[in-house]
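Exercise 3.2. Students should predict the tertiary structure of the chain below and write it as structure tokens, then compare their answer with the key that follows.

Predict this chain's 3D structure.
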Amino acid sequence: MPDIVVVGGGLTGLMTALTLSHSPYRIAHIQRQQANVDGETIRTTTISAAGRRMLETLGVWQHLTSAPTPIEAVKVADGEPSTGIKARRGKAFDLEWQDRDEPMAFVVPNATLLTALERQMRDAHVERLADRTVAGFAIFNKQAHLTLINDRGVTDEVICDLVVGCDGRNSMLRKSVGVRQRTLLHSQTAVVALVAAERPHKNAAFQRFLASGPIALMPLADNLMSLVWTLPKHEASQYQTCDVGKFNQTITMAIGDEVGFLTLQSDRLIWPIKPTFIANPTADNLILAGDAAHVIHPLAGQGYNLALGDAAVLLDILCATSARGLQAGHFSVLADYRQKRQLDVGAMSLATLGLNALFTTMPPGFARIAGLGMSLLNRSPAKSIFSTIARGGKLARASLLTGKLPQ
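Answer key:
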């Protein structure tokens, strides 16, 4: 019988099960079906410098079949791109970070990361329960009882001390125990695609805050870039299906000509944006992680880094709990996890929500003031603080984020 069961496939479920395999407890992993690598050829994940150290320590980074693209500069601007004489006189982006010593983050195709996680899981001390769906969750005698159903309709039961729910933004586990959440109205949708840049991107990431929503370009190999364009949901649907030529012209005009003309290189996906806030990501014998515990706006590309922090912090807690001779489901584990994740998750949630609201919903006068503040920030000592946080591991303190396994 396992001590801990991780529920959920995909990037977060695999990573969490692999992480917790380094605890003293017996781990099982339940996933409905094997992660669909073919379905993740367009989307990418941004990994902070601290996240890279964690994945290296877990042995995942070494199995990436293509080199991650380092982000060596971040350029941010407010408002429509300038044109003509005004553009030649000023900088195209108000706020810039550069680091010649260490990349601030890395961009990895989701398919590449999924394959590496699956490869490393083969050698992990984890019981794999594939092709099963959790049909029920209950607590008896202070233990969690999971009712499972396989693809042939056969049911069985798994009993454990602790369940870690990584089953996504529509988490069945979260709903089954009545964990309260607040989800913002769906007013924006992200258009996601791969585009080719006319000029070298020089491993820079670009973000521009427009009245309709932020548009971002993340660097990839072969001068490709990952586009995440946030729009009102009715506009997103139009741009998903419009003529390719019109799409290319529109995104180039929206971001500016820093990397020249942009041309579509993939299908266009749309992703509804529904930021979700959960004050307490725990219940009896249950911990929620990843999108099951928090969904933030994608403008900063920090969603998966929060999931990495969830797993790293939980591993430290479990190792300390085992050293005290306690079970994995002890109430102190839930209390420690809740307390230690509040600052990191809360700060990132408020930052992304606040930036999006400031530049897309405030009156023009306020937006101009924000733009001035961005220019001032670019010349202030506080700029280094934001850069340090973006590298990860400063709000969430855990052994793996420093490149070490817990002692």
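Discussion points: The radius of gyration is 22 Å. Residues 331-360 form the longest helix (30 residues).
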